[in-house]
Amino acid sequence: MISEFYKDMTGKTSVIRDFFDYSMKRVTELGPDSVYNFSIGNPSVPAPENFTKAMEELLRDGDPVKLHGYSPTLGLMSFRETVADSLNRRFGMNYTAAHIFPTTGAAGALAHAIRCVADENDEIITFAPYFPEYIPYVTGCGPALKVVPADTSSFQINFEKFEEMMNEKVAAVLLNSPNNPSGIVYTTETIKKLAGILSEKEKEYGHEIFLISDEPYREIVFEGTDSPYITKYYDNSISCYSYSKSLSIPGERLGYVAVNPKAKDAEYIVPMCGQISRFTGHNCPPSIIMQAVAKVIDETSDLSVYETNANLLYEALTDMGYSCVKPGGTFYMFPKSPIEDANEFCWTAAKELGLIIVPGDSFECPGHFRISYCVQTETIEKAIPLFRKALELV
Questions:
Q1: Can you tell me the distance from the alpha carbon of 228 to that of 225, in angstroms, rounded to the nearest whole number?
Q2: Predicted structure pTM score
Q3: Cα 62–293–278 angle (5° rounding)?
Q4: Interacting residues of 90 by C-beta distance below 8 A, sequence separation 6+
Q5: DSSP code of residue 358
Q6: Which helix (H) or strand (E) holds 58?
Q7: Alpha-carbon distance 118 to 109, whole Å?
Q8: Half-sphere exposure (CA, 13 Å, Cβ side) for 340?
Q9: DSSP secondary structure letters along 265-334
Q10: Residue among 132, 117, 116 nearest 279 (CA)
Q11: Which own/partner pairs from 272-280 qualify as long-range (CB within 8 Å, at least 24 positions apart)?
Q12: Measured over all CA atoms, what is the biggest interatomic distance in the chain, rounded to whole angstroms?
């Protein structure tokens, strides 16, 4: 007898994947020139040359047993030490290796962090618009996910609604900055205000409330944007990171959990992650990737194309009459749909023009649509006239 829970999940597909799959079908039927695919967030720039060189050197000169063998339950100590040192130098923290747990990307980091701080009857609060996979990440391990409605004027936190939703069952707050799908970055003022509210509620409720910061786009921040290191502003915080975007290595599946050393029971959280791995089958990311990333720990890919694309697209869309909060980072933009039904708008654009964009309903922000502009700038330039034609179709 198979699991009815996961059987039911097979019917709950990702709308992002639905549009991506449609684009692949259209390419097969009509050819690649028939599609401008802005559906999925797959980095469009190569990994740094030094990362490739590090892999080549390890494969040529390294001990094959160590390169390809199991790493310890808590990950390679050398990688954990290197990550801690980098974070301390860059953000003025005082991490040690004991506060770092390597994971399979940010998804793996979130899966561990949530299990560390929340139980089955607890609640976790997040803020719309949010990455739809938060639903299985949270509900799959027991807690209830509660979503604060978006402030669509700025996509900063809707504090009035947030405070209304706070209650004694809240074990953690999950936030994503820079944000997928809006592209906004929570300001220092926003984070300080959030930290103040959480500190007051901890005293009122008599228990810790953890802040889980989902940060895979931390390095993709545009010029002049206020981008605080969130963990500095709240003691009971856990940072979840991925090298997928910063180093353009999403297929290598490497990230980490970083526990604020000032957090309550901080010394237990990384060992707890090791135990959680026994239940989830996580069992550490590849040894060779941890070693290679450690050699280029402070480097990134050339991420400048994302800001170039953002500026080009934002100026063109707003000139056409689209309404959009200007992104401060990531490679996403979240304009308002020209008609109330964003699903209808997006499917019309896909079927009539081959313009693949994603409606905002699954991000719990109806009436908007996401553009993933991690593509070549030439693709943006060619697609701009299609966005104008899309306005004429509705």
A1: 10
A2: 0.95
A3: 90
A4: 229, 298
A5: E
A6: helix 49-61
A7: 14
A8: 0
A9: THHHHHHHHHHHHHHHT-----HHHHHHHHHTTT-----HHHHHHHHHHHHHHHHHT---PPP-BTTEE-
A10: 116
A11: 272/115, 272/116, 273/74, 273/101, 273/103, 273/112, 273/116, 274/73, 274/74, 274/101, 276/111, 276/112, 276/115, 276/116, 277/73, 277/112, 279/115, 280/111, 280/112
A12: 61
The predicted pLDDT at position 381 comes to 96
> Left (φ > 0), alpha (ψ -120 to 50) or beta: where does 146 sit?
beta
- Phi, psi angles (nearest 5°) of residue 259: -95, 125
What gap in Å lies between CA 390 and CA 371, rounded to an integer? 14
Picking from 39, 58, 41, the residue whose alpha carbon sits closest to that of residue 288 is 58
Sign of the CA dihedral 125, 128, 134, 139? positive
Element (H or E) spanning 176, and its range? Answer: strand 170-176
Copy the structure tokens of residue 373. 């502009």
Between CA 49 and CA 105 the distance in angstroms is: 21
Structural tokens at position 75: 């990950």
User: Would you say the C-alpha torsion 166, 172, 178, 181 has a positive or negative sign?
Assistant: negative
Q: What is the mean pLDDT of each run of 10 residues along the chain (394 residues)?
A: 82 82 87 90 95 97 91 95 98 98 95 95 97 92 96 97 98 98 97 98 98 98 96 98 97 97 97 93 89 98 98 98 97 97 96 96 96 96 97 88
Q: Are the beta carbons of 327 and 223 closer than 8 angstroms?
A: no
Q: Radius of gyration over alpha carbons of the chain, in Å?
A: 21
Phi, psi of 320 (to 5 degrees): -75, -20
Output the six-digit token pair for 121: 């009857």
Pairing of the two strands 100-103 and 210-214: unpaired
Owner of token pair 């304009």: 335
The pLDDT value given to residue 112: 96
pLDDT of residue 82: 98
Question: How many CB atoms sit inside 10 A of residue 310's CB?
Answer: 24
Tokens of 279: 């239940």
In the numeric block, which tokens belong to residue 50?
């030094």
**142 three-class SS:** coil
Which H or E run contains 204? helix 188-205
Question: Which sign, positive or negative, has the C-alpha torsion 61, 64, 65, 66?
Answer: positive
